[in-house]
Amino acid sequence: METTIFLYIHFLLLSISCFIHKSNGLNSTLENCNLFEGSWIIDESYPPYDSLSCPFLRDDFNCLKNGRPDEFYLKYRWQPTACNLPRFDGKVFLEKMKGKRLLFVGDSLGNNQWESLACLLHAAVPTSKYIYDRGGIITLKFQEYGVSLEYLKNPFLVDVSHDKDGRILTLDSITRTSIWTKTDVLIFNSYHWWNHTGTLQGWDYLEVGGKRFKDMDRMKAYKIGLTTWANWIDSNIDPTKTRVFFQGIPALHFA
Fold first, then answer.
1. Backbone phi, then psi, for 142, in 5-degree steps?
2. Model confidence over 145-156: pLDDT tens digits?
3. pTM for this structure?
4. How far is it, in rounded angstroms, from Cα 229 to Cα 119?
């Protein structure tokens, strides 16, 4: 589980860090570097936080707490081919993101990313006061910095409603988006739940163009849903004010 968490949070933080540099008018060699061309190397100074002491990790996502005996997988660091990355500094991150709101929207991969970033920041400022709420929207706010880190479970991104036919996944409709428009950084992910069947399937009927289907090709449904999401983003999000990230096909939790 933590392997997946670390790999994806690495790339996410690289992208957000570049956004921070650009937003603050800072020149950086990173702007001309392909961050996604490189390899994973062993770094003995890793991991950057202790999963056993982080208060935000769910027990079922905590490999060490569940008895995994080896820790080598926590030592991997991403090394781009053409440049060197500065070590992630949670305090600097909080200072540069002061007063901003970051929202993760998606399935449990988004939850993994939220937890890992929360642990990284808490490890950097362990005495900083925070407010932690695990209500409908999981929220962690670092009061000193005014930085709010939030996670909203929404595995399909498009609308799911209920009526006499059961759960209806409407591929061409997005209406529950009010919180999306009030954030500075949006991190979306969606994939796994589109392929579930049986008791894990998240709908009873698919709907598109006013017509309902018991099922259809899952990749076709995924494409329609993501096109609806992308069109909503293009029409409602100002890219000069809000940065949007999307993660599609991920590794499994136990990869």
1. -85, 105
2. 999 999 999 999
3. 0.87
4. 29
